[in-house]
Amino acid sequence: MSTYTLQNLLDIMAKMRAEGGCPWDREQTLESLKQYLIEECYEVIDAIDSGRADKHADELGDLLLQVVFQAQIRSEQGLFAFEEVVDRICEKLIRRHPHVFGNTRVSGSPEVLKNWEAIK
């Protein structure tokens, strides 16, 4: 089994978008990628419904590719890099889960959801 890392994926995407990379990938825009993002979301759902873990892993990879692709385009525009996407979701998860990462106590899922909405 291969042991590629997330950094490998980011490097591969950067190379595909760079001069001398893939012409199709270089032509893509955020607008042109929207249809693929939607398609991949549906394919993840289909994979879940199939009950096949291998198919689910493949489709999650395709969905992750869409996130990395869009972040690469924004990085090329000088607006943000993939690392900022990771920072933002980590900060959000920690902030919205004070019962896990802080001292807040909850009695169950309904209270977690109530807190999530209040913090949002």
Summarize the structure.
This protein is an all-alpha fold and 120 residues long. It has two domains: 80 residues, MazG-like (Helix Hairpins); 39 residues, no CATH class. It is built from seven helices and no strands.
Descriptors:
120 residues; mainly alpha; Helix Hairpins
CATH class of the largest domain: Mainly Alpha
Overall radius of gyration: 18 Å
Poorly predicted runs are none
Biggest beta sheet attributes: none
Helix content: over 70%
**Coarse morphology:** globular
What count of domains describes the coordinates?
Answer: 2
CATH architecture call of the largest domain: Orthogonal Bundle
| Name given to the CATH homologous superfamily of the largest domain | MazG-like
Overall number of strands: 0
Number of helices: 7
H/E order of the elements? HHHHHHH
Average residue pLDDT = 96
Strand content: under 5%
Would you kindly provide a written description of the structure presented here, covering whatever features stand out?
It is a single chain. The protein is mainly alpha-helical. It has helices at residues 6-17, 23-27, 30-50, 53-76, 82-95, 98-101, 109-119. The chain is 76% helix and 0% strand. The protein folds into two domains: 1-80, Orthogonal Bundle (Helix Hairpins), CATH 1.10.287; 82-120, no CATH class.
